[in-house]
Design goal:
2 iron, 2 sulfur cluster binding, single chain, 289 residues, 4 strands, quinone, alpha+beta, globular, Glutaredoxin
């Protein structure tokens, strides 16, 4: 008897399964294989190229599909299950079709208290969609995202993972209106906006040289700590020598200092006998009973 299993997450796992076309047309597979060869060549171990290859197939479909999973598996000599396990772990790999612009509103702690929740509510009302949904025109997919390490500019909205800093509900509405009208605004910093599929290709390691050259520099808030350190003549101590961690008593002292506030280890199955108490032979005890 033959049993067919459709790969995807377990029924109790969140998120939709990976669905769509199961194979690529020959011309698409050939084109992607040429790109994949360039990506794989960058890594000493071919399977290390899995994450960029997942971005590559996402640049073709706008999300992951069984065809993309099978393509990655074939290129790296992995099983479809191995590729699916990795692909469903990371939130940057989409399981449903994505609009031209993926708009993510940070709702983590600092952005939330600075207005991130209000921005997400305003965009849901303005676009007529909930987080995780795409507008009817296919232009914008809205989602809430975890921290993007941009707390110095909170609250932050990201479009295809480019930063739009210090947002308000009003500015965020203007932002998505520009996206839907085909007039994408310039990000606060980073590269100029491109579509979601084009962004996925960049993340695969195949960037557009002109776009890469047009990067907006890092902002003043990010560099504030460096500026203050320079003004006060502060700098990291120079590393004069790297030694083995077991090279001498100083290393033991450092190790004790680093672990002095750690919790005591949990109970062990191997409990030593108390002082002046003979050890019990479990076999002898068992024989008496």
């Amino acid at each position: 008897m033959t049993v067919f299993l459709e790969l995807g997450q377990r029924p109790d796992e969140p998120g939709p399964p990976i669905h769509g076309a199961k194979t690529y047309p020959a011309e698409v597979a050939t084109r992607l294989a040429a790109d994949a060869e360039k990506v794989i060549a960058k890594y000493p171990q071919s399977r290390s190229a899995l994450l960029p290859l997942l971005h590559l197939v996402q640049s073709e479909d706008g999300c992951l599909t069984p065809a993309g999973i099978a393509f990655c598996a074939k290129q790296l000599r992995l099983t479809d299950a191995e590729v699916t396990a990795v692909a469903t772990f990371y939130s940057m790999y989409r399981r449903t079709p994505t609009g031209e612009y993926l708009v993510g509103v940070c709702t983590n702690t600092l952005c939330a208290i600075m207005g991130g929740d209000a921005i997400l509510d305003a965009l849901q009302d303005h676009l007529g969609v909930h987080a995780g949904e795409t507008t009817a025109d296919g232009r914008v997919t809205l989602e809430h995202v975890e921290c993007n390490a941009a707390c110095d500019y909170a609250p932050v909205v990201m479009v295809n993972w480019e930063f739009f800093d210090n947002q308000t509900p009003s500015s965020a509405r203007d932002l998505v209106d520009g996206l839907r009208e085909g007039k994408p605004p310039i990000p606060t910093r980073g590269a100029p906006l491109c579509t979601f599929k084009e962004t996925a290709r960049v993340l695969a390691g195949l960037p557009d040289p002109e776009a890469a050259a047009a990067q907006t520099p890092t902002g003043e808030a990010t560099l504030a700590g460096l500026r203050i350190a320079k003004e006060r003549g502060m700098e990291a101590p120079a590393v004069t020598e790297v030694s083995d961690s077991h090279s001498g008593p100083d290393d033991e002292k450092v190790a004790k200092e680093a672990t002095k506030d750690q919790a005591a280890p949990g109970p062990s199955a191997d409990v030593p006998a108390k002082p002046n108490e003979p050890e019990t032979d479990p076999d002898a005890t068992e024989s008496k009973t």
